[in-house]
Write a structure and sequence with these properties.
- By secondary structure, the chain is mostly helical.
- The chain contains 44 helices and ten strands.
Length: 1000
């Protein structure tokens, strides 16, 4: 071939979608020689391949093994198209045909229609020579034959799917056929199992053929298999039900029948999932059975029903929603499904059912590895599970009284829900389309290697192949954009959808106390302060319905607790949080007993929950903290010594840094909750709270640093000293709820190579940041106050700090050091750094220019740092007379006078202010006004976080929020105006003092 001809050939291949042109050209030349076919014939179907390079590579390997089979198939147009489509979408099928090139003959005419359910059942039974429920041969060869025939049928389904003009529209029927194929495979595997068990092979027992034949085993499909919405490679969830005719039971006994059925089940699963010459098809998962992995693999129908009546959890009924007989005895399977239907469709009436479903969805999301979340098609936010959980919850709630929405399949259920008016048509249409697209993406990523996966690809070339195979987009970039759009749509609808069950009475009240109609109860709750009376009625009913002792106690408690909630800041949230905590502690008898018998625990619980989302959210994760409310001593912040001892014990117990960090985060959350409760109940002052919050932060950093250092610094570099220096409000022991932890990092090599010491220190900083991160209660280690700010090195040696402060230090950097205080790491290094800091921050004489520069910076901060649109007078940190005014003034005075007045050498703002007052630098009245404004701004800032669960530096304008903040500070109800006036008045007075003493 000339250079010109080769260039034209490569150009043609590029137009067909090939990317590895040289390799593809060589393989096509080889195929021409092996098959004796023209190039145009070979490449005519390449347009049907999502990945033509993979297709031609797979085709070449198959042809090398058996050119005749490939040549014969290429004579059929439909078979040729199907082969290229399969090999271009799936290396798994390429491997299959490489193992079994003779199976190519079955692709003749493939792609135009789907195999029928009955046809697949017949084909798979024939593959094992089944007669009267027994396979002709019980050897492993039957399982191999079964798997080969199954993959042949799977190829027929995939060919139809891949060659469809609109694969999104075919998702439903393709998924149904995949479920039918799985059911047929289980039936055929069961036939082999019967032959093996009757033959008395190793591990199968010694049972007669008549006993095996008389044993009834029904295989119930759950999940996607039961709903006929299966994936290409998915776990098939099943439940096994055993039975036998009366004569056999009389002859051998029920336990013998269950034994036989168990062996049949084990062998059936092995035929599908066991390791053989031909790879397994998929995993047969029986973990949805009663008691899960700990329960018996096989039970009789009566045993199943007894379990569901007495011990089943709510999620088990949700799982049963999709139950369908797949294989085995059809009458027994039908009897099982019929028997569980009433239990499924009354399960929504169980106590706490809705919240338990919601918590289960949250747990699924929480357990996704962080690195997988952006790629999770199935489990992640905006994924398939969001749609399925939403649909199932609506079904179960409304299906209790409306049998028209009792559907197994997600798409069928969506149609029924919209038809009956439970979902808006626009939302249902979006859900339906997005579900199909998500399922199509899931199908295609699984086809790629014929392996179970639910992750979007990350590599551009894989995204390009996915775009071509799905037909959803014309490029990898666009299919990712489509995916992101769908996730947002699905998540938005998932969050917004809710149900309104028809309530006929408040189920919490005994008959003799039901004096209010539903409308009257609604109006009563609204009158005492609930903004969502319908929701409150629902939560009350969930807490108090049922005959359990816990429900009885709740009925006694609820009337007075409702009143206490109504007296709080946010009664609606308080009731919701109480319900969640009650459910978390449902199996703990001490909880309700404490609320009933304690002199004040119930009232304190309603107070903290209705006052603070910060507390409510933490208590949901640490529900046992409710016990603290019965013991005032347990509400007191723990000492630093006690926390240090616990932190060191954690480090001793956990070998890995991840485990240790997880335990340390749990310690921090628990102690923050304790401090927050103490703050709300008024058992600690603002100074005590700040000190406690600082202590918890110090212990967290110290413990995390020890764990990180153990992982990062090898023994040969153990001489390295490393320390964390607290700055800002952290250094001043003045932290509030939601405060960042300002820090600097310093190290001293001590004989370690300087470059090595620097690298290790950077790793320590990185590890400390990573393992101290907490999504629940963020801990932001902010190093922006270091020399040169964000532009400077994140860690420096003590020598480098010394040199920097000697030669280049700016006035604001010396000012920042006034709050510097060592909190973690080498005590000797902290002492040396403190000596250095003292020389800089407490100079014998102050350069007037430096003082002018600080004043200039303060003026600029007031103009530039305030967020746009925020009223400066309402900014608790940067507004006039607020925290920054007091702190900058005190720091200016420290720089001027601390060298000669030792009492001013402190990192505490108020302590330094009072020392200045004692020295006659600040008049007493002025100091009082400054301290008043500083304390009030600090309290308001923390109260804002406690109320909302979110950090904010702005005093709200919303009267309800402002009233809530005031209630936390001890103001009476409806004091929003008073809170506002007190703060604005205090800051005006402080500002006048500041301007007089700061600017002169």
């Amino acid at each position: 071939m000339s250079t010109s001809e080769r260039s034209q050939s490569l150009t043609h291949l590029a137009r067909l979608g090939f990317s590895r042109l040289g390799e593809a050209e060589a393989q096509l030349v080889e195929l021409e020689e092996l098959l004796g076919l023209e190039r145009d014939v070979l490449t005519a179907s390449a347009v049907h391949a999502a990945d033509p390079d993979a297709a031609v590579s797979g085709l070449t390997q198959i042809a090398r093994r058996d050119a005749g089979c490939v040549r014969t198939l290429h004579a059929d147009l439909g078979g040729r198209r199907a082969l290229w489509a399969l090999l271009g979408a799936s290396t798994g099928f390429a491997d299959f045909y490489l193992r079994h090139p003779d199976e190519l003959a079955h692709l003749v005419g493939a792609g135009s229609t789907l195999p029928s359910a009955e046809g697949m059942r017949t084909a798979l039974l024939e593959s094992v020579g089944a007669q009267d429920g027994f396979a002709a041969d019980g050897s492993d060869a039957s399982w191999v034959a079964l798997r080969v025939r199954y993959r042949q049928l799977l190829a027929d389904i995939a060919a139809f799917d891949l060659l469809s003009a609109s694969p999104v529209d075919e998702v439903g029927i393709v998924a149904a056929r995949l479920a039918d194929a799985a059911a047929a495979a289980l039936e055929a595997s069961l036939c082999v199992a019967r032959t093996r068990v009757a033959g008395g092979g190793a591990g199968t027992g010694a049972f007669s053929r008549d006993q095996v034949a008389g044993t009834r085993l029904a295989i119930i499909g759950m999940g996607k298999a039961g709903a006929r919405e299966l994936n290409y490679v998915s776990d098939v969830d099943v439940i096994f039900v055993a039975g036998g005719d009366d004569a056999l039971i009389a002859e051998v006994g029920e336990s013998r029948i269950v034994d036989i059925a168990t062996r049949l089940a084990v062998q059936t699963m092995r035929g599908i999932s066991g390791v053989e010459i031909e790879p397994p098809l998929w995993e047969v998962d029986a973990n949805l059975r009663p008691e899960g992995k700990q329960g018996a693999l096989v039970r009789t129908l009566d045993s199943h029903l007894s379990y569901y009546d007495r011990w089943a959890k709510s999620w088990e009924f949700q799982a049963l929603l999709k139950a369908r007989p797949l294989a085995g005895d059809p009458e027994l399977g039908a009897a099982y499904v019929a028997a569980v239907q009433p239990k499924i469709w009354t399960s929504a009436a169980r106590e706490n059912f809705v919240d338990s479903v919601q918590r289960m969805r949250e747990r699924v999301t929480d357990n996704i590895p962080a690195a997988e979340v952006p790629f999770q098609i199935k489990l992640g936010p905006g994924g398939i599970r969001d749609i399925e959980f939403t649909v199932q919850l609506l079904q179960l709630v409304h299906g209790l009284s409306d049998d028209r929405i009792r559907q197994r399949g997600t798409l069928d259920a969506l149609d029924a829900l919209v038809e009956q008016g439970y979902i808006g048509r626009a939302e249902a249409a979006t859900f339906s389309n997005d579900y199909r697209v998500l399922r199509l993406l899931e199908h295609r990523v699984q086809l790629r290697n014929l392996r179970r996966t639910h992750l979007m690809p990350s590599r551009p070339e894989d995204l390009r192949v996915l775009a071509r195979s799905s037909g959803i987009a014309d490029s990898g970039e666009k299919i990712w954009q489509t995916w992101e759009t769908i996730k947002r749509e699905v998540r938005d609808i998932h969050v917004r959808l809710f149900y309104r069950p028809l309530l006929t009475a408040v189920a919490s009240l005994p008959e003799q106390e039901r004096t209010l109609s539903l409308a009257q109860a609604h109006d009563r709750l609204a009158a005492i302060g609930f903004t969502d009376p319908v929701g409150a009625l629902r939560h009350i009913a969930a807490l108090t319905s049922g005959l359990s002792r816990g429900a009885t106690i709740q009925r006694h408690l609820m009337p007075v607790m409702i009143r206490w909630f109504a007296d709080g800041v946010d009664p609606d949230y308080g009731l919701i949080a109480f319900r969640r905590i009650s459910e978390r502690l449902g199996g703990s008898p001490w909880f309700l007993r404490m609320l009933r018998d304690s002199s004040g625990a119930a009232e304190r619980l309603t107070r903290v929950l209705s006052s603070s989302r910060y507390v409510g959210e933490l208590m949901e994760w640490i529900p046992e903290s409710a016990a603290w409310l019965d013991d005032p001593e347990l509400l007191q912040p723990r000492s630093g010594v006690a926390l240090q001892q616990e932190a060191r014990a954690i480090q001793a117990r956990h070998a890995t840094i991840a485990d240790a960090a997880r335990a340390i985060r749990a310690l921090r959350r628990r102690e923050l909750l304790r401090i927050a409760m103490s703050a709300i109940l008024g058992t600690s002052t603002i100074e005590e709270i700040a000190a406690a919050l600082t202590t918890v932060t110090e212990v967290t950093i110290q413990a995390t640093l020890r764990a990180v250092r153990r992982e990062i610094v090898p023994p040969e570099d153990a001489a390295l000293d490393f320390s964390v220096i607290a700055m800002g409000r952290f250094g001043g022991s003045e932290l509030g709820f939601g405060s960042d932890a300002d820090v600097m990092y310093v190290y001293r090599p001590n004989g370690v190579d300087p470059q090595r010491a620097h690298e290790l220190s950077i790793q320590l900083v990185s590890g400390l940041r990573t393992h101290s991160e907490d999504q629940r209660v963020p801990l932001d280690l902010d190093a922006d106050l270091r020399p040169e700010g964000r532009n400077g090195p994140v860690a420096r040696s003590l020598e480098a700090y010394t040199e920097y402060y000697r030669r280049w230090s700016l006035s604001w950097e010396a000012q920042a050091l006034l709050r510097a205080r060592g909190v973690a790491g080498s005590a000797k290094l902290i002492s040396a750094f403190t000596d250095l800091a003292d020389d800089v921050r407490y100079p014998a004489s102050v350069d007037p220019q430096a003082l002018r520069e600080i004043k200039r910076i303060k003026a600029r901060v007031e103009k530039e740092r305030l967020p746009q649109g925020v009223d400066p007078a309402r900014h608790l940190k940067l507004g006039p007379g607020s925290l920054s005014d007091v702190e900058w003034l005190v720091q200016l005075l420290q720089m001027e006078h601390a060298h000669r007045i030792p009492a001013m050498r402190t990192t505490s703002t108020i302590a330094a202010l009072r020392a200045a007052q004692a020295a006659g630098i600040v008049p007493e009245a002025s100091a009082d006004r400054l301290a008043e404004a500083w304390r009030l701004a600090s309290r308001l800032r923390s109260a804002n976080t406690l109320l909302s669960g979110q950090t904010s530096d702005v005093l709200p304008t919303d009267r309800k929020k402002l009233d809530g903040i005031g209630r936390l500070l001890g103001y009476p109800p409806r004091s929003a105006t008073q809170v506002e006036e007190d703060y604005l008045g205090a800051t005006r007075r402080a500002r006048r003092v500041f301007e007089h003493l700061f600017y002169g």
